[in-house]
Design a protein that fits this description.
The complex is a heterodimer of chains A (458) and B (413). Chain A is an alpha+beta fold and 458 residues long. Helices cover 36% and strands 21% of the residues of chain A. In chain A, helix 1 runs antiparallel to helix 3. Helix content of chain B is 51%, strand content 9%. Chain B has a four-stranded parallel β-sheet with strand order 4-3-5-6, sandwiched between helices. A four-stranded parallel β-sheet of chain B has the order 8-7-9-10, sandwiched between helices. Chain B starts with a helix and ends with a helix. The chains are: A alpha+beta (458), B alpha/beta (413).
Chain lengths: 458, 413
């Protein structure tokens, strides 16, 4: 089957855009998910146009071969891994920004455009594209839309699904459909655009997207606050939001994370602190001044030690601790499993306590950082992929973390998606009814199950 | 191999290297980028990837610019992994015959000199002058080589009339010329001597202008590279000098980083390699950090842009010193290019083995240079200088490209 498939693909695409060597295929066997095993595809294709994508999907359909759409391969739940062999469809050659419409505050992009590049172009017009996952410098628009990526600005600006107003999608039968457009208000039938945002490549291949841009804030104020007790930090978060101030960034680093960050970056952080909050408010200068003063007062009122950035250089220094968090953890161990269980904001203290208790019981190091403002925490388990016993404990702990999140009224994933890594737990969050609906949608759009099979719709 | 196994497992596959890899920017395929190569090294170790010609090809598309190492959250030693994988291929398969012949010559300094001198005499038969500058193109081009424009080999290789011209009281510096300066750009060697002597230094030269060994190691010939490391230490044994200085950052990093590593297990050499590492400097760093030279006297009215060589900026952490030297020249205005430390795509023989890729990487650099409006391009590496001159000539850009010390020498005359 495989040879015929490769021949068909090679005749459908220009020379050099069908990869078949072992050394090439091995490089598409993974994404950024530490817990998921490598799976080698049979072939990798590099289409450069919607038409070429449609040709590939039609050939795949004829052969019954799986198609795995892939952007930059930075997904954190196994979404881009070719679970059952077949075709990896890389969108990196489709990387044109087709239009930047400053008048309508929107842009039309191909799926391979790197998010940061769109932001750089938007900045020239005083605009920005708010979703900013940690991988913003490499992740593609197509991948981040398919995964509905979030980021550090979620609390105030929302996530990817709040910015996608139009899509062009190649469906499982090879048909090309154009959904939505530039109009920001659009209730024309079902929300078909919304159906594909976060669909993780299981319903169609995104070949073009129209996204909203917003005016970049005129001013911002940044501060950190360290606390002797993590409960003081979480009460501070609650008090800031209760004061109707919505910071653009409201990040929390727990004691374990802080200790590793200080060891790694020597940023001068208090290593005896139980938690650090990084808070940034943005907007018009007058509002920023007022909100920053309020946030500072709340932090001080809860016993926080506050450092406020006087200029851009100081801002960079304060951000350095947050930016160093992942590298610091990555250097502590041979592997890190970054989870993103999410709870309603008011339940964060209970969630933090649950994570600590789970770590203790399984004798694991779990460092937690995350977007405290929107309840999206990143408990990060330090692992060694070669240590089977440790990995087993890690997986048991992760299952318990998911259970705890759901029991607190939360969910499995705030921004990394389900993919294969969290598929076993999907029923906990959706229930039988939700699972059944998911399968019916999948069966209606992809009856042959060729689009990203072996993931959460399996 | 154990060290290699540890090195590959610390890669978290986060993919951050995609943002900075010059090869990936052109190919946009995963085997081009560090994450892919590290996973391929893991596949060699696990037996999933046979060590064959295909593996060799996969590891050859890397300029060893170290940008990925700088961006890597996990601190993966990508360049070491690539070097180890290349060495593994050579160990398993041997060197291809062309490389065997060439490296056999490079390993013997006298053979190298004789070959270079013969080539310098014969090159007019093979090359014709390129129209726009002092570069040449192949007369009988095959394939893509037709597009490349090379500087001629020097009719008179750089040879410092040492070992010691004058017995002064200043610090004594061993100027390590390296192959590129000796055979292609002797002017960089003469300028180096000039600025050092002007600063009151006594310059000595090594007895033989032997290769530092990087080209061999880059192709996986670890045995040949180690042999050259020993040769260098042997020929410097007994010479007295306070510092070893080179105008080629790849040569300098051989003394600073590679020799201590290559010779770590050899009792006869390990301590000497460490001692040399402690006194080896890039020439711009030595002039600024050790000699604290003052500005030259003559004015040079020029806008200059500066390209940071990878092995100097990331390899040795030297970026401030050449800029201080340039802006210290009265009349020189520095106009920074976008991403000055982005790889120019030269990378030694990479520019020959992957000409199309090398030219594409270089084309971005040429665009960034043109955007500065500078009249002169300065860099601190003869290899970068050759690549920059070539890629500028591809667009008909006739801006001169010089080594930092050449401007400095000119401004002191």
């Amino acid at each position: 089957m495989s040879d015929d498939l490769i021949r068909a693909l090679a005749s459908a695409l220009p020379k050099g855009r069908v990869l078949t060597r072992t050394s090439e295929l091995l490089c598409y066997a993974y994404d950024a998910t530490a817990s998921e095993a490598r799976r080698v595809p049979d072939v990798v294709v590099l289409p450069a146009s919607t038409d070429e994508v449609a040709r590939v999907v039609r050939i795949a359909r004829g052969a019954g071969a799986p198609v795995y759409p892939r952007g930059a391969g930075t997904s954190l739940s196994g979404g881009a891994i070719p679970a059952q062999g077949g075709i990896v469809l890389s969108t990196t050659r489709m990387d044109a920004v087709l239009e930047l419409d400053a008048e309508n505050h929107c842009a039309i992009v191909q799926p391979g455009v790197v998010i940061q590049r769109l932001n750089d172009l938007a900045a020239a017009h005083g605009l920005m594209y708010p979703p900013d996952p940690g991988s913003v410098a490499v992740a593609t628009m197509g991948g981040s839309i398919a995964e509905c990526a979030g980021g550090l600005r979620g609390l105030k600006y929302g996530v990817t699904k709040h910015y996608v107003t139009g899509l062009e999608v190649v469906l499982a039968d090879g048909q090309i459909v154009r959904l939505g457009g530039k109009a920001t208000k659009n209730v024309t039938g079902y929300d078909l655009v919304g159906l594909f945002v976060g669909s993780e490549g299981t319903l169609g291949v995104i070949t073009e997207a129209t996204v909203r841009l917003v005016p970049a804030p005129e001013a911002r104020a940044t501060m950190t606050a360290t606390f002797a007790q993590s409960s003081a930090a979480t009460r501070t978060v609650a008090a800031i939001v209760a004061g109707n101030v919505v910071p653009a960034t409201l990040e929390l680093l727990d004691a374990t994370t802080l200790r590793f960050v200080e060891e790694y970056a020597h940023a001068g952080l208090p290593t005896d602190a139980a938690a650090l909050l990084l808070i940034e408010v943005d907007g018009p200068p007058e509002a920023v001044a007022r909100e920053a003063a309020f946030v500072e007062r709340v932090c001080l009122g809860h016993g926080g030690v506050v450092e406020r950035a006087a200029d851009d250089e100081a801002r960079e220094r304060l951000w350095a601790a947050r930016r160093a968090a992942y590298p610091a953890l990555a250097r502590q161990s041979r592997g890190t499993i970054v989870e993103d269980a999410t709870v309603p904001r008011s339940r964060i203290p209970e969630m933090l306590a649950a994570i600590e208790e789970i770590a203790r019981r399984h004798d694991l190091t779990i460092a937690t950082m995350g977007h405290a403002g929107d309840g999206n925490l990143h408990p990060t388990v330090l692992v060694d992929p070669d240590d089977a016993e440790l990995m087993e404990r890690a997986h048991a702990a992760i299952a318990e973390i998911f259970r705890a999140a759901i029991d607190l009224g939360g969910t499995l994933s705030g921004e990394h998606g389900i993919g294969s890594a969290k598929a076993p737990y999907l029923g906990w969050a959706l229930g039988e009814g939700g699972l059944d609906l998911t399968r019916r949608i999948k069966a209606a759009l992809d009856p042959q199950n060729i689009l990203n099979p072996g993931k959460f719709t399996a | 191999m154990r060290a290699l196994a540890d090195a590959v497992t610390i890669c978290n596959r986060c993919g951050a290297c995609q943002a900075v890899c010059p090869v990936y920017a052109e190919t946009r395929i995963e085997p081009g980028v560090a994450r892919g190569k590290v996973q391929l090294a893991a596949a060699i170790l696990s037996g999933d990837l046979p060590v064959d010609r295909e593996a060799a090809a996969a590891f050859s598309t890397c300029t060893t610019c170290m940008a990925c190492e700088e961006a890597c959250p996990s601190g993966v030693p990508v360049v070491d992994i690539v070097a180890a994988a290349r060495a593994q291929v050579v160990e398993a398969r041997g060197l291809p015959w062309v490389k065997r012949v060439v490296f056999g010559g490079v390993r013997r300094p006298r053979v190298l000199r004789a070959a270079a001198e013969a080539a310098a005499r014969l090159q007019d038969a093979a090359f014709k002058p390129a129209s726009d500058r002092d570069l040449r193109r192949l007369r009988f081009p095959h394939g893509l080589a037709a597009r490349r424009a090379y500087p001629p080999l020097a009719a008179h290789p750089f040879a410092h009339p040492g070992p010691l011209r004058k017995a002064g009281t200043g610090p004594r510096v061993l100027l390590f010329p390296g192959c590129m300066v000796t055979y292609v750009y002797p002017g960089i060697g003469h300028a180096s001597v000039e600025v050092l002597e002007r600063a009151g230094v006594d310059v000595v030269a090594p007895p033989e202008a032997a290769c530092c060994g990087v080209p061999l190691e880059a192709h996986g010939d670890l045995a040949g590279a180690t042999e050259l490391a020993r040769f260098q230490l042997d020929q410097l044994e007994g010479l007295e000098f306070d510092a070893l200085v080179a105008a080629c950052p790849t040569c300098t990093s051989s003394f600073v980083h590679r020799y201590p590593r290559l010779l770590a297990g050899e009792p006869r050499y390990a301590a000497r390699a460490q001692r040399l590492a402690a006194c080896a400097y890039d020439i711009t760093s030595y002039l600024v950090d050790v000699l604290c030279v003052g500005p030259p006297t003559r004015r040079l009215e020029a806008t200059v842009t500066y390209h940071d060589p990878c092995h100097l900026a990331r390899g040795l952490g030297v970026t401030r010193q050449p800029r201080e030297l340039l802006t210290g020249i009265p009349g020189v205005r520095l106009s920074e290019m976008r991403e000055p430390s982005r790889c120019c795509g030269g990378a030694g023989s990479f520019s020959l083995a992957h000409q199309e890729l090398s030219l594409a990487i270089g084309a971005r650099k040429a665009t960034d240079i043109a955007a500065t409006g500078a009249e002169v391009v300065a860099t601190s590496c003869p290899g970068c200088r050759m690549q920059l001159a070539d890629v500028l000539s591809q667009t008909g850009d006739s801006r001169p490209v010089v080594h930092t010390v050449e401007l400095l020498a000119a401004a002191g005359r």
